[in-house]
Design brief:
Helix content: 40-55%
Shape: elongated
Order of helices and strands: HEHEHEHEHEHEHHEHEHHEHHEHEHEEHE
Strand content: 15-25%
Structural class: alpha/beta
Number of helices: 16
Radius of gyration: 25 Å
Distance between the termini: 59 Å
Strand order of the largest sheet: 1-2-10-7-8-9
Number of strands: 14
CATH class of the largest domain: Alpha Beta
Largest sheet: 6 strands, mixed
Length: 402
Amino acid sequence: MQLTANDVATAHAAIRPHIVRTPTVAAPRLGEPIGVRLFLKLDNLQYTGSFKDRGSCLKLQHLAAASPRPSGVIAASAGNHAQGVAYHARRLGLPATIVMPITTPFSKIERTEGLGAHVELHGESVAECTVHARATAATKGLAFVHPYDDPLVVAGQGTAAIELLEDQPQLDTIVVPIGGGGLAAGTALWAKHVNPRIRIFGVQTAMCAPMRARLRGETIPVLRTHTLADGIAVKTPGEIPAAILADHLEDVLLVDEVDIENAVQVLAAQQKVVAEGAGAAGVAAVLHHAGLFRGHDVGVMVCGGNIDRRMLSTVLLRGLKRDGKIAKLRISIHDVPGVLSRVTQLIGASGADVIDIEHQRLFNNLAPRQAELDVVMETKGAAHVERILHTLGEAGFPAITM
C-alpha cells in the first residue's frame, strides 16, 4: 500500500470522534528571543498523553471491523504505544496483550493495566519484546499492532498535521521528533500536499539517530537508548516511514541531552506545558539550531507528556540550579557558638531563603576549631548569588558555590 495525503484525510475523518482535537498554541516567550514565530501542537494532551492515540485508533478500528474479527490484539512497547493500543482496544471490545521489557517502571505497567490490557514482561528490550509478541500472535491468532511500520498507523499519526495546519495555515516549517518515523512520515505527507514548499525537519537524539544515518546513507553508529528522550530512542527505523521521509524531509537534526533537558524545563517554566523528553525534542532542536528557523513561522509537534514525576522534578530543580535560582554554598566558619545564626542572618538579610543547611565538622581537612557549612538557598539568580558571596566574605565567612 503506497500512502498518500488522501489516506491521511480519510484517517482523520475516521478517528476524529474518538481522539482529542488538541490545540495549537503560540509560544512567543520561547520564539521571540531567537527571532522565530513559534507554535506548539500539544498532542501531549491526548487521552493517554501522546500522539500514539491516533495511529492506534485507526489501526484498531480496522481490525475491529475486519471479517473475521481477530480474537485479540498484541503489541510490544515500554510506554506510549502500549497505552494507545490498550485504550482503543478496550473501547472497541478487543482483548489486548502488551509485552513489555522486564525493566519497565511499575508506573507504566500500572497505567497500561489500568486501561484494560494484559501485560506480559519479557526480555530486556523492546526488540526482544517484539520477537516474543510476534510469536505469541502467530500461536494464539492475535493481531500484532506495530508502533510505526504500518500504513494505517502512519496515516493515523499524520492527522496531527491536519489539525496543526488548520490552526496555523501560514506555517512554512514543521519540526517533528523521530523515533520509528510514523509521526514524521504522516506529517510530511499531509504538509507537503497542502504546501509543497513547506520545510519539514525531523529531530533525533544524538545518542540514537538511526533514521538520520539511514536517510544520509551513512553507517548507523553505536546506538544508546538510555536517554531522557527514550520515546524516540528507536534502534530500527520503519521501512514505510523511511521511504516517505527520503522524499519529503529537509533533514534530521540532532540534539543532545542538555538540549532536551533544557527544552523540558523551559516548556514547563515558560509555557506551562508538561512534555516528556521525546515530546520536547522538537523545541530542543529549534532552540539549539536557531539559525535554521530565524524569521520563519515554525510549528513544533509536542508529541508526548508522559514524563515520570520524579524525573520532571529533577529536571526542574536542575534548571533552577543552572539559572542560579537555587544555589549551594560551602562556607568556612569558626566552630564557635553563634556563628551559624550569624551566617543565616546575613543570607536572609541579603534576600535569599535558606532551604537546607548542613554543619560539617568531621569529613574535611580543616583545623579542629574550624568547620564548614553547606547551605542550599533560593535566590533571585546568578548576580544575587555573587552579592551574597561578597557579603559573606566581607563578614569573615569565605564561601564558594558548589
